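Predict the structure of Pectinesterase inhibitor domain-containing protein.
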Amino acid sequence: MLYPTSMPLPKKSAAMASSFNGSGVLFVVSALLLFGTTQVTPMDYLLPICKTVGGGSTFVGIQFCMDTFHSDPRTAHGATYQDLAAIAVDLLTANATSTKAKIGGLLDGKTADAATAQALRSCQVLYDGILQRQPGSAAAVKGGKFSEAISSLEKSAAAAKECEDGFSKSHVASPVTVENSNAFQLAKLAVGLLYS
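Done. Here is the predicted structure for Pectinesterase inhibitor domain-containing protein.
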């Protein structure tokens, strides 16, 4: 028997509908919760990779690895170790470019004392070297010439560390500590991926 929507259901039918709706809602909510907790996100494949590369490393942490690759949309749907190394090299290039620009701005501002200015000039030369090596590093990674890429990336990591050490040796605060740390870790991350 069909009932118009404006008419109330008989008591027995109303109870059945209420029971069905309650259990139906419970089923749907349960299914969503179950599905929601077991659904794999596209980035989940990165955790084992970052654990492999950063788990035993004194240079790169798992969280840095995860944050680095989560920030880049190219990793959203899976990537090989070689692909991830190429992304890390690209990010190192971007970091070095912006760091060199920041150093130039700090030197142009002439607000730095003599010791800081000297350390910044040294860093400027070091970051020039990083940027000159980057096209070769990127080509070596993409071309499968891993030992060549690793050698270049190790030089870039050493340059970022040398930049930071220059401030320590001069007993002045570094205005590019974060940038140096990121450059160092990006280079070491790419190296770790190429060794894996």
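Helices lie at 11-38, 46-54, 62-70, 81-109, 114-142, 146-169, 177-195.
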